[in-house]
Amino acid sequence: MTTVRKGQAGPPLPRDEFRRRFLQDFHDPAFEAESAAIERLEAIAWEAYQGGRKAPRTQKAGPGFADPDYDLSIEWRETRDRLIAAQKRWGERGTPSRVLLVCGASRNDGSCPGEMSKTYRLAQQARAVFEQAGIEVDLLDLSRLTSDYGLHIHPCKGCVSTAMPLCHWPCSCYPNHSTRQVGDWMSEIYEKWVSAHGVMLLTPTYWYSAPSPLKLMMDRLVCADGGNPDPTSTHGKKAEEAKAIELKGWDYPKHLKGRVYGVAVHGDVAGIESVRRALCDWLDWMGFVDAGSQSRLDRFIGYYEPYATSHDTLDEDHAVQEEVCNVARAIAHAVEDLRAGKLRQPDAHLTRPRPK
C-alpha cells in the first residue's frame, strides 16, 4: 500500500489570529452597537473551528450507500438528490431542450469596472438564437462573483491528486462551516450542467488564459470526470481508504458525457487560440461532443485598439457577432440531433487503454 505523504499544512490558527480574521466581517462602525453579540458569535465560531465541525448538520446515509450508518452532510445530500433528478429529466424525451450559456467574463456594470462586458453582449445574441430555436436557456453569468454579496466559487482542493475516489460527485469539500468556507455557488452550478443538453462557453482572454471565475468553475467540475458518487465509501476524506479503492480498480465515470458543446473566445492582443484549444480539449476529455468546426471560435475584437472604445468596435464588427450566433446555431442543431438519437460519437464504443 502506498504511503500518504504529510507535512505541508501549517498548524491551526492561534486564537488571536482567528479572532482578527473573524472580525474582518464587522469592520463597518455600524456593527459597534452589537460588539458584545459579535464577541459571543466569535466564541461559537472558535469552538466550531477547534472541533473541525465541517458539516454540523448530518443524517445517516441509509440504504444505497457503502456505509449506511455514515453521518452524511445534509447539504451534500440535497445537492446530490437534485443532480439525480436533473439527470433523470435530461434523459426524458418529452422535456424541453436546454442549453447552459456561460458568460466567463469577470466584468459587469454592478462593480468596479462600471460597464458591462462584451462577452455578456455576445451571450445575449447567442441567447436569442437558442430561444428562436425553441430551446430553454440557462444563462450563467460568472461575473456575479465580482458583484454579488456572499457568492463564491471556492478553489478546488485537489483531492483527485490524492486518489480519484476521494473526489466526490458532487464536490463534498464545501461548504466547510468550521473554516467559514461557505456561500459556495457550485452547489447550484452542478445542477445547471447536469440539466443542460448543450453548453456554450463565451469568454474573453485574460493574460493568455481563461478569466479566474471561469477557471474556478472548471477546476471544481473535475468531480464530474471520474468523481466518486458515494462519500461513505471513503468515510468522508480518508485518504488511505480512497487510495485503496483506486488501486483495486476505478472506472473513472464521466458524469456529464454525451452533452453537446460550443466555444467562443475573444481577445484584443494575444492568447485567443490557446484558450480556445484548452477549453475544447477540456470538454472533449469530459466526454462532450462538439457541434462542428463552426462551434469552436476564437476572434480578436479591436486588435491593439484602445480598451475605452472596445464596445464601439464590437458594434461595428458585424462579422464576429454573426460568427458567435453561428456557434449557437451549430449547438442548437446538434442538440436537436442528440435528442433525436441521431448524434453519435464515432469513438464512443472504444475503451481507453489508460483511463484517468
Automatic annotation (TrEMBL):
Residues 98-294 form the NADPH-dependent FMN reductase-like domain. It comes from Ramlibacter humi. This is Flavodoxin family protein. Pfam families: FMN_red. The lineage of its organism: Bacteria, Pseudomonadati, Pseudomonadota, Betaproteobacteria, Burkholderiales. GO terms for molecular function: oxidoreductase activity. InterPro entries: Flavoprotein-like_sf (IPR029039), FMN_Rdtase-like_dom (IPR005025).
